[in-house]
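cron nightly-structures :: item 1 of 1
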Amino acid sequence: MDIRQIRDIKVLLPSDDELVPADGPPARGDVSGLAVTDADWSRLQLDGRAVTGCHFTGVSLREAVLEQARLSNTTFDDCDFASARLTDTKIDRCVFTGCRLMGVNARRLTLIDVVFERCRFDYATLTELTATGPLAFVDCMLRETTIAESKLEGVVFADCPMPGTGIARTKLRGADLRGSQISGLAGATQLAGTTLDPAQIPQLTHALLAELHINIRP
């Protein structure tokens, strides 16, 4: 059982069980124990299905639809989720590395033991997310990302640029944003109870002044 320490949280990683290579997209039913490389599974429908114990590398899941699905004990390397839609889905014990999630629409996701590392969330909409256990974003780009109506207490955002990102009606108490660029963040008042580093104090000041429409004049 592999565990990764990220700041103050410990994340349970996917296991290295024996995998079976797969050539084409999965037939109807749950997906388990597959190793898939450089496949085009764009617009894949995974309604009510489970993906468990898999390893995907370079797989295109552009415009895929996951509704009432479950992703568990699975690794995603360099995968493309652009414009995918995830609704009422549980993600547990999964690692996403170097993945592109631009324009993703994620709503009512439950996440536990999940790591996103070097991923891009440009223009993504993340609504009603709930972290029920360890969740970390490491060196991810969140450009003009929308985060709303979510419960992300204790989540780690490590070294994540957030230009133009907006946060609304989201619980972040205990979250760790050290090293992240927050000067262009909209919704800085949502950061109450989070942990920052000294270098972020000017960034937070800039974000708060912009949010409160305060003008500074000599």
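cron nightly-structures :: done
The longest strand covers residues 70-77.
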